[in-house]
Predict the structure.
Amino acid sequence: MKVLLGTGNPAKLAEMREILGEIPGVEWVSAGELGLPEPKEEGSTLEENAIIKAVTYAKLSGLPAVAEDTGLEVEALDGAPGVLSSRFSGKEKDYEANNRKLLELLQGVENRRARFRTVAVLALPDGRFWTNEGLLEGEIARAPRGTGGFGYDPLFIPKGGTRTLAELSPAEKNAISHRRRALEGLRPLLRVLAENPELLL
């Protein structure tokens, strides 16, 4: 059974492949390999955007599709940037500008508590879908540290740790991440579908 990983972000695609790993009977394919355009994220919540992406990719490809949407929620900013995380500075996926804006807004703020939240969705071509959520609690550093990861990773220190996500190895990050917690919840469903292909009909 081929399953589409629904993202056009190479770094996110690599993490999804690593986290989901090998599932008997499942062959991963990417949206890029099939030449599919990224759906517009027009939802007002992470859940809505994740569902839009997964359902659209499943219908376009005719394959089961897994997609997710992730947001950084900062307590002192009333949960912002949240659903606007990738375009917080006004320009989508300008990671450095997003990080600069976040630090500017938190200048002089003592409460640095924050969390990453990921909503992952498995959708079938007929429109059925399932969701799962993953959280990673932590705090915002005073300055960027590390060269790994992407997005807000240089600023995010997981709860109980001292290093930012960008200072962790990919394996260390993937072992604890919000994305892992969200995607792992879909693995049992994927196994069931691979073992019972009639459920796809």
